[in-house]
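Subject: sequence -> structure tokens, single chain

Hey, anyone have a minute? Need the predicted structure for the following. Not urgent.
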Amino acid sequence: MTRDMTSVPRRALGRTGWRVSPLGLGCASYWAKPRFAEAKARAVLAAALESGITVLDTGASYAHGHAERRLGRLLRELGADPGALLIGTKAGTVADARGRLGKDFRPATVTAQVEGSLRALGLERLPLLQLHGPEPKDLTDDLRTALDRLRAEGKVDLLGLNGFAPVIRHAIGLTPFDVLMPFLSVLDPGTRPLVAAAHDAGQGVLVAGPLARMAFAPPLALWLTRPSGLWYLARAMRHGPGPMLRAQRLRPALRAEGWTPAGLAMAWVLEQPGVDCAVFGTTRPGHIADLAVAASRRLPDAVRTAVARVHDRAPANARA
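Reply:
Had a minute. Here:
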């Protein structure tokens, strides 16, 4: 099967007026690191654009700024039209003198990061600026006023935030946030009510972590034979074996002829009410091709039923 997303209808991004592809590429993680060859990074981005992906997600702090610079450079080399893409970056994560990352949502810091992101990406205006992992207490009146000012000055178009359930819940319907980016996956489905509520409030929803670092079907043959794979394996195990142990219950459910487990997991996310786009990362063009096909297909009924049974049997704290 060779279908891509060019024939898949775009989805309205809340009430923003934007229409976006159902899949977005995360220009971060190993893709962003200098050790990942430029030619390979270019091939991944080219495959995403050719498949019909219009959402590109990055951040000022990713790979200590290398992610934004690489993305801007490769888009120019590929002759991409920035006006046809929702290029999103993030602010609020900063490095100290020793290179350790921390959070800083002071208006001056966020404003300075926006200026840096514009230069790094080679843009005059950021299509989307998101706060990166704030807590509810970080969303002060001063910060929200500063975000409004950045929009009024023409430096950003849409405003949003990426974070865990407490801040997503706090930000539903809260100005000036046009877009929210919660974590949602077949392994961690607990934010579904928040996604639906954000949609009902008119906010666009980009999903982060839709493949749950492949815990439900770890591609060990790839992870153990590639430098990028070893990095992804370390990331998957960063929180201990718990996620992979929980994912064991899902593995029998994510099986269907003509599908990969990743394709089924992505199709499950994309059919959840309120989801406008699911953002994933990869270092393999073939992974993009598989997921582009999944985005054009309907999740098999048997898989939907099997996944629901697993979720219904999960402990309450695993569903939240």
